[in-house]
Amino acid sequence: REGFARMTRGVQRLRERDRAGVVTISSAPSIAAKWLVPRLERFNAAHPEIDVRLSASRELVDFRSDDVDAAMRFGPGRYPGLVAEKLFDDAVMPVCSPRLLHGAHPLKLPEDLRHHVLLHDESLNPDPATPDWATWVKAAGVAGVDPGRGPRLSHAELAVQAANDGVGVVLGRQALIAADLAAGRLVAPFALSIPATFAYYLVYPEGAIERPKVAAFRNWILAEAAAQAA
User: What pTM, to 2 d.p., does this model score?
Assistant: First the structure.
């Protein structure tokens, strides 16, 4: 009886959200702030009848009890019982403020990193295979740089902001730093980038795509991801 009541409440919530014309999306704060939010104006223009409600959280979604229609996640793409559509791959590369290209120890060669603070984005930790500073330094064949030193920041957006402020050099995820690179707030002093093993996915329950507002968001975000890849 309790299970039936819970299911009934869930159905009622779904109907209420459908009537409200609101699509609720869960996303990690980093990709929400750096990738999704800057693009929402285009979704609003294409679908003025649908309001996006964005829940920025790193917690996993329980679609049976949480008021969430779909989630954007950085992960392996294996989510039992759910549909996971790949949006785009990612890679990591060193980036910093343009100010670090000049001064007493200008960043010209990877060896110059020994004179600068290395910023560590610890939000990458859930993926043990994601390249870190030790991986990048080894791939670059750099000697004399200690890849373990430097501040450790729990959120990617904090690490990117620290790099923007000239605190040091961060091994940034390309999906999260693209806008900063385009605007000139960050620069990539070296060409070497290393692919991440995780990718970004749109995740939603089976059957959710039958609801027009979920289908509209799904089609829009896949188009945005394809445009980025192009």
Answer: 0.82
